[in-house]
Amino acid sequence: MPLNSKIPQGELSQKWTTYKSTCKLVNPANKRQLEVIVIGTGLAGASAAASLGEMGYKVKTFCFQDSPRRAHSIAAQGGINAAKNYQNDGDSTYRLFYDTVKGGDYRSREGNVYRLAEVSANIIDQCVAQGVPFAREYGGLLSNRSFGGVQVQRTFYAAGQTGQQLLIGAYQALERQVALGNVTQYSRHEMLEVVIIDGKARGVIVRNLVTGELERHFGHAVLLCSGGYGNVFYLSTNAMGSNVTAAWKAHKSGAFFGNPCFTQIHPTCIPVSGDHQSKLTLMSESLRNDGRIWVPKKQGDTRKPNEIPVEERDYYLERRYPAFGNLVPRDVASRAAKERCDAGYGVGSSRQAVYLDFASAIERYGKIEAGKHGNHNPDAETVRQLGEEVVKEKYGNLFEMYEKITGEDPYKIPMRIYPAVHYTMGGLWVDYELMTTVPGLYALGEANFSDHGANRLGASALMQGLADGYFVIPYTLGNYLADDIRTKAIPTTHEAFEAAEKKVKERIETMMNIKGSESVESFHKRLGKIMWDKCGMARNAKGLAEAIEEIKALRKEFWANVRIPGEIKEYNPELDKAGRVADFLELGELMCKDALYRSESCGGHFREESQTEEGEALRKDDEFTLVAAWEYKGDSNFELHKEDLNYEVMHLTQRSYK
Amino acid sequence: MEHYSMNLTLKVWKQKNTKTKGHFETFQVKNISSEMSFLEMFDVLNEQLIAEGKEPIAFDHDCREGICGMCSMYINGRAHGPWHHTTTCQLHMREYKDGDTIVVEPWRANAFPVIKDLVVDRQAFDRIIQAGGYISANTGNAVDANSIPIEKHKADEAFAAAACIGCGACVAACPNASAMLFLSAKASHLALLPQGDPERKIRAVNMVEQMDKEGFGSCSNIGLCEASCPKGISLENIARLNREYLGAVFGEGGDNA
Ligand SMILES: Cc1cc2nc3c(=O)[nH]c(=O)nc-3n(C[C@H](O)[C@H](O)[C@H](O)COP(=O)(O)OP(=O)(O)OC[C@H]3O[C@@H](n4cnc5c(N)ncnc54)[C@H](O)[C@@H]3O)c2cc1C
Ligand code: SF4
Ligand code: FES
After folding, report:
1. What pLDDT score was predicted for residue B1?
2. Is B133's C-beta closer than 6 angstroms to any atom of ligand 3?
3. Would the pLDDT of A372 be above 60?
4. Which residue ranges form the domains of chain A, and what is each CATH number?
5. Which residue, A100, A40, A23, is CA-closest to A463?
6. Dihedral class, residue A413 (left if φ above 0, else alpha if ψ from -120 to 50, else beta)
7. In ligand 2, which atom is closest to the CA atom of B163?
8. pLDDT above 70: residue A179
9. Contact at 8 Å (CB) between A619 and A574?
10. Percentage of residues in chain A having pLDDT higher than 70
């Protein structure tokens, strides 16, 4: 099947305007007859459901947590980008577009990214109207900060809790629609199958996680807003429940999976402390605005950080990338940390960490504050106190979180950080309208393969999720449903519903009946280790080929030996987790296959065989300026479809942050 | 930090479902590292139970970063345990020493029925928000974000109230099982902003009415909610809401005051 991305014709800056003014519309009376299913209530799902409800569609939302407000978007810390140019520092729609395409290492679509940059400003307006309390200046206007990989200040934030505030805004808009009767919400429900009738997505099978009962729900269209799949690595910064199941079921029902191997490893996370570790905690990238990253110049130096004089420290990012210094993009910063640790310069008891040091920032801010108070010759203690206050105002909650987890005070001792899996750029392949290869089945937010190419810039996921939900899907869905106004709701007794439910039921029963001896958790950990070792920050052909075999073997073992306690028809978190891990065990294989196919390095995907003499990532534009979209063909069998990426405006260059 | 390992006795509430009665069960866990989080200690216990062919203990959790509001354990008589301004998931085992006994219960409130073991149903909170915890702003109608300047201290105050994670610890800690801290945090967040001002009276009235309907108790100013709140939501919010509510019901204060 040829892949049609449906990018509108015309000049880049006019494409979305043209689309909006020519797409089909559904009249209000007809909207009331049209039902839409939204899986997921994170930023993408909640914003979509609220907007579609307002427009008059009959919407049902589903999430597996106990409330829509707890979706993983809640954990986003640092901020959200928008091309407002409030700081008058030269920002524009074009510049945000340019930074995003460049940051993504030229593996995203120009048309999509331009639209994203275009609607970014509306997002901020919308959120402020909903009461999102963004940080403000004394003059009462909105405050901005800069984020990695760019040279303007375009990031809006609410302390270190931006995701929380944005999600609460979208959640409240959603609850308002629930109150108005336009949206019905189902919490503690997990989607386990898409129902396809005459080639179109027409509903879902979900499991009520409290009672264990399966339910059928019809929809004229189905929107998957189910988030990313970073937890395939077991340890990641994602919430414990984040999973690929919804996207994977869609994939197995015909939706292509785009660039599955594109994973973002975030440079600043709290390092692993032991085998018991259940998740990793992010320390927002915004910290790199003020923190300096270093390791000792001497290998295996065991002195305490404060005992190592400045001359004996290697501020390796500032050394290697003088133009961007500590603000290089995430993939570059992560690889540089790994390089130092692998070469024996790592710190902390595990030696798998580098320092993120705020001493200089505390001193700098302290002096400025003292100056403001008219104290031009302050003593060191005064400077430190004043400086700490400034740092606290900016990052207080992150410092507190660090101290709770490690028991160390980052105001006094540099933080220890190490890269961790954070985000998945890959996801369900979608066209310009956010539709997957299954008609009527859409993917929004982190669940789609998205606008971030091979690497996402900081503060751009929140932007994308809300752009998709508030400003894109309300138009593109109408364009599809306009042709569907004569389709009556299909009764869920239809044979396709029967068959889908039967499939889900049998799979659950098979899993429960294995009654083996190894826990779900243990399989998940083992899978994570294979993925991290062989499909993590650096990848090579040999390792990937091995990983594919190891995953297959592990999957076989899982289906022969997993032990799931409890019963099907009750609240049973182990059973929920088992289904998710079973899907990760299939996805992992596809990720390795995709990584093996893409023999270039680009963005977060680093193939050791493809690097420059200085060890920087080397792209192969002739061969790989494309999206790898995989079609499911049965067990371990995936067929590759290529979507060529055409750059009309941007010139492809090797990224340089030197 | 010196790390150490410990053996502990856990007395945990077990309850099969909403309809059955629950009881305490005692468990032993060994070699718990002081570096673990409280929930990682529960992971260890659950893995042990599964290996022994027993049922693990059900508990709610997701982000494990103190922000989603899902985790909810009542530990040795305190909602979210002993640490100030800390959720259960952020509590770490260096708080405990070898040989300690820890008693763990679910949130207890009529409005939060137990689903299983330590898991409760908090959908009543969603319904309180549905009753008015929002600003009526449709998508696409918004004016430029900087067209309404907001004093920094007001914005900061609104943010402080908006930091509520909806965990329900305030309810669990309150002898009356009142939801006033949660409710007032939302009402304050919105009322403090010019965007939320027009609806502030009706919001207060409707949310309070819903709270009563859900079977939460009434507030008698004890203050245990504030003490247990992981996000430092202040009692000030309750005072503000009371003014708002009285103003709305008796026509005092508010817009014309
Ligand atoms: C710690 C952390 C910090 C971050 N900080 C930032 C930041 O500062 N700026 C930024 O731009 N981005 C940040 N990100 C990335 C960003 O938060 C996410 O990419 C984004 O929030 C994803 O939103 P979403 O709506 O696509 O999915 P999510 O918020 O993950 O929501 C997924 C939803 O789908 C539901 N769901 C999933 N599967 C099923 C199923 N089978 N059945 C029913 N429901 C299901 C879930 O219940 C949930 O409601 C951060 C990410 C992390 C991990
Ligand atoms: S007010 Fe505090 S304790 Fe109550 S729900 Fe909100 S965060 Fe939890
Ligand atoms: S698990 Fe999210 S707040 Fe504790």
Report:
1. 63
2. no
3. yes
4. 266-420 (3.90.700.10), 495-644 (1.20.58.100)
5. A100
6. beta
7. 7
8. yes
9. no
10. 100
Which member of A54, A405, A565 has the closest CB to residue B55?
A565
* Contact assessment for residue B131 and residue B213, using Cβ atoms and an 8 Å cutoff: no
Catalytic residue at A330? yes
Q: Which of A70, A202, A288, A330 is catalytic?
A: A330
Please tell me the distance from the alpha carbon of residue A256 to that of residue A631, in angstroms, as a whole number: 5
The answer to whether A485 and A33 have CB atoms below 8 angstroms apart is yes
**pLDDT for A421:** 97
Say what the pLDDT of residue B252 is.
55
What span, in angstroms and rounded, lies between the C-alpha atoms of A636 and B60? 34
Q: Which of A159, A281, A571 sits opposite B65 (nearest CB)?
A: A281
pLDDT in tens, B68-83: 999 999 999 999 999 9
pLDDT tens, position by position, A489-507: 999 999 999 999 999 999 9
Compute the C-alpha angle B240/B246/B249, nearest 5°: 140
Count of CB atoms situated within 10 Å of the CB of A16: 22
Give the tokens for residue B179.
Answer: 């939801």
Whether residue A581 contacts residue A558, with contact meaning beta carbons closer than 8 Å, is answered with yes
Give the strand order in the sheet containing A263-269: A263-269, A415-424, A354-357, A292-296, A313-314
The DSSP code for A539 is B
May I ask the CATH class of domain B122-138+147-256?
mainly alpha
Looking at residue B255, its pLDDT comes to 44
Rg over CA atoms, chain B: 21
Domain spans of chain B, in order of start? 5-115, 122-138+147-256
Q: Count the residues in chain A.
A: 658
What backbone torsions phi and psi does residue A193 show, to the nearest 5 degrees? -165, 145
The answer as to CATH 3.30.2000.30 being correct for domain B5-115 is no
The residue type found at A294 is W
Atom 3 (ligand 3): residue with closest C-alpha? B66
Taking the C-alpha atoms of residue B255 and residue B248, their distance in angstroms, rounded to an integer, is 10
Backbone angles phi, psi at A418, to 5 degrees: -155, 150
**Could you report the per-residue pLDDT of A83-123, keeping only the tens digit for each?**
999 999 999 999 999 999 999 999 999 999 999 999 999 99
Q: CA-to-CA distance for A46 and A426, rounded, in angstroms? A: 21
Question: Which amino acid is present at B178?
Answer: S
Determine if ligand 3 sits within 6 Å of the CB of residue B63: yes
The residue count of chain B comes to: 257
CA separation for the pair A494, A533 (Å, rounded)? 46
Closest chain A residue by Cα to residue B86: A404
Tell me the whole-structure pTM to 2 decimals. 0.97
Strand order in the sheet with A257-258: A427-428, A257-258, A626-632, A638-644
